[in-house]
Specification:
By secondary structure, this protein is α/β, with parallel strands linked by helices. The chain is built from 6 helices and 5 strands, in the order H-E-H-E-H-H-H-E-H-E-E. A 3-stranded parallel beta sheet has the order 2-1-3, with helices on one face. It has a two-stranded antiparallel sheet with strand order 4-5. Strand 4 (about 155-160) and strand 5 (about 165-170) form a beta hairpin.
Length: about 180
């Protein structure tokens, strides 16, 4: 949901993430959502980098489900379908995981072509990160529960002449 801020623990975790980044980043991009921007600002300040807002890093659009609790959605058939078949369903009036995966992978691939050899930090949300990790790990979207994306975790992609490869997924920071 828009307007959700980082709490004190989230700020501490972002500082820990910043200290783990190596080599020194040359580009910092963030989802336009407030909590992502706050995280990116904390990391970017360590490296004196500006934060670029990248709409392709935005959270999945949950459509009619935005702001509703999991308990409220539990009895909805569309919710069950969404959780069983992420690769072929979407929230009502929302965005499919396939669309999320297409947009985030296209963004990553563009950066890898245009910023060769650079360390780039992208701050996003669980679903887009999960979609990217699944793409590069060659995991079907319907198996989304097999890929954990913890808050303030780091997933690393390496780009070289062979393409983009997943180096690590969901490195959790000590809280």
């Amino acid at each position: 949901m828009p307007g959700v801020e980082l709490d004190e623990q989230g700020c501490r975790e972002a500082q820990i993430c910043a200290a783990l980044i190596d080599p020194i980043p040359t580009l910092m991009q963030s989802s336009p959502q407030l909590r992502a921007l706050q995280t990116a600002d904390i990391i970017a300040s360590r490296y004196a980098l500006p934060v670029e807002i990248a709409p392709d890093l935005d959270e999945l659009d949950a459509g009619d489900w935005t702001g509703r609790s999991f308990a409220e959605l539990e009895s909805a058939p569309a919710w069950r379908q969404w959780n069983e078949k992420r690769g072929s369903s979407a929230p009502p009036n929302g965005e499919s995981m396939t669309a999320v995966q297409r947009r985030i992978v296209a963004h990553i691939e563009h950066l890898c072509r245009s910023r060769t050899g650079e360390c780039i930090v992208l701050v996003s949300h669980a679903e887009p990160i999960r979609a990217a990790v699944m793409h590069y790990a060659k995991i079907a979207l319907d198996d989304f529960l097999s890929v954990e994306v913890a808050p303030a975790s780091i997933s690393t992609l390496i780009s070289d002449s062979a393409g983009v490869n997943l180096s690590q997924a969901n490195q959790k920071v000590p809280a």
